[in-house]
Amino acid sequence: MIHLTRSNTVKVVIIGAGEVGFHIASRIAYEQKEVVVIDNNESALQRVSESIDVQVIKGSGSSPSVLKEAGIEDAKVVLAVTDSDQINMVACLFSDYISPKTMKLVRLRNPDYISYKKALQKHSPHIHTIINPDIEAVRAIERFMSVPGAVDVGDFADGRIQLIGFRLTMGSPLLGIRLMDMPRMENGGNILIAAVIRKEMLIIPRGKDVLAEGDLVYIVCESRYLTETLRLLKVDTTPVRRVMIIGGGRVGYKMAAALEKKSIKTKLIEKDPKVCQTLAEKLNRVMVLKGDGTDQNLLIEENVQNMDMVITLTGDEETNILSSLLARRMGARSNITRISKFSYFPLVEAIGIDHIVSPRLSAVNTILQHIREGNVLSAISIKGEQAEVMEAIVQHDSNVAGKTLQKIPFPKGALVVGVVRKEDTFIPTGSTVIQTDDRIIIFAVREVISKIEKIMTVKLKYY
Q1: Exposure letters 58-78 (e unless 16+ CB within 10 A, then b)
Q2: Total structural domains within the chain
Q3: Could you tell me the strand order of the sheet in which 103-107 lies?
Q4: Which terminus of the chain is more solvent-facing, meaning fewer CB atoms within 10 Å of its CB: N or C?
Q5: 425 pairs with which residues across the strands?
Q6: Which structural domain range is residue 404 located in?
Q7: Residues 165 and 212 in one domain
Q8: CATH code, 164
Q9: At residue 181, what are phi and psi to the nearest 5 degrees?
Q10: Are 222 and 425 in contact (CB under 8 A)?
């Protein structure tokens, strides 16, 4: 049980105690925000109450009386993240009636609802952000495909700054190099190492630190230098031209449609003949095949060994893991595996899974940026939520505007890794003066995120 003494009044009401609700509650309660979780499921609430120091209420989030009991009038944000689009919508509707000022974020999957996105934002229930986990998962896959040799990929400032995580292998020019010596390397001045994962431990590197084989290194680089930087670091950037998708559900279809637009040769394997028929009617250039993604004979027949990437997206994660491992053993260059259970994440790399995609985790990352204080535009979790990379706009009356980085009291465990100023992007130094309207990229370990929020908020306003 985590017990925290909260020193502020930022309040978040979460409707839904499933995986997304649980992990959002865990993250923001740790940061000393007041959290109330609503759910009808007794066992889900018990898991929350036994693990996190938050208030739990048994009931339906679509009930006005339950919302009032949760103190919706005092909440800065309400998150409707149950598995039911209808409950989420009704919860936002009554939240809007009871507390119009409360920001409403909702998880929706049904395309019929999402097609009315602008109307739902402009008119009642005045939803601030609609999160579709399937679309977020497709975007995550596309980022992985952009750098096949990376373990983790994120982008900031509309793609102008990239965060890349990759394993140091034998032959890497970074092996044995002190970080302070990196600027002397070719193109080294355009790279900043934000973090290192060594033997499952997160390290904030310093100038005298030396990188070792097997380290998972996170670099920040301007996009214009990325291709050359990755080439020098011997990270695989060979374009993905042939893809096999296993699973033709919502995410599988959206992924196939996205690849079709990019003219990437794609095969899609699906067991259900009716789903295959529907997919074949919707997709023009994707080859739709009826079959089982764990059938070795089928994979051989469809030349899985020639695939640049195999993406397993069925609704069963055990099937996804097995299919990815089979494809890898049979010669596929890389794999991306859909996994929903957060508890599986630490295990998959050890057994040969290259990349994980989780619609739930993608939704969590999207939600976080809207909960953060300090005008945060985006947020990406790394290494099992031990740390976060945030993008924020500097407001004219904030605590950082007009100061050099070395004069800003960022806590230990936080590092400004990139700055976007109008049309310019650059890696900052201690003498860089932060200006109003700068977009700054901040790496922060979990323990100091609330301190970063306080530094980034304005002086005269209280959130």
Answers
A1: ebbbbbeebbeebebeebbbb
A2: 4
A3: 55-58, 34-39, 11-15, 77-80, 103-107, 129-131
A4: N
A5: 420
A6: 364-456
A7: yes
A8: 3.30.70.1450
A9: -90, -5
A10: yes
Length of the chain: 463
Query: Do residues 429 and 405 touch, judged by C-beta distance below 8 A?
Result: yes
- Share the mean pLDDT of the chain: 88
Query: In the chain, what is the greatest distance between 2 CA atoms, to the nearest angstrom?
Result: 67
Cα distances from 460 to residues 150, 397, 439, 463, in angstroms, run 42, 8, 20, 10
Strand 152-156 versus strand 161-167 pairing type: antiparallel
- Rg of the chain in Å (alpha carbons): 23
User: Please, are residues 114 and 132 in contact by the beta-carbon 8 Å criterion?
Assistant: yes
Q: What is the rounded CA–CA span in Å between residue 400 and residue 374? A: 11
* Contact assessment for residue 395 and residue 436, using Cβ atoms and an 8 Å cutoff: yes
Residue 315's SS3 state is coil
Amino acid 374: pLDDT: 59
What is the identity of the amino acid at 225? Y
What value, to the nearest 5°, has the Cα angle with vertex 160 and ends 417 and 118? Answer: 115
Residue 239 Cα distances to 162, 167, 169, 211, 242, angstroms = 17, 19, 20, 28, 9
Q: What percent of the chain has pLDDT over 70?
A: 93
* Residue 86, in any domain of the structure: yes
List, in sequence order, every beta strand (DSSP E) within 358-451: 376-382, 387-393, 414-421, 424-426, 439-445
CA distances from 438 to 24, 419, 434, 456 (A): 28, 7, 7, 12
Dist CA 14 CA 57 (whole Å): 10
Please state, in angstroms and rounded to a whole number, the distance separating the CA atoms of residues 25 and 53: 9
Kindly report, residue by residue over 345-394, the tens digit of the pLDDT: 777 767 879 899 988 888 888 887 777 765 766 677 776 667 888 888 89
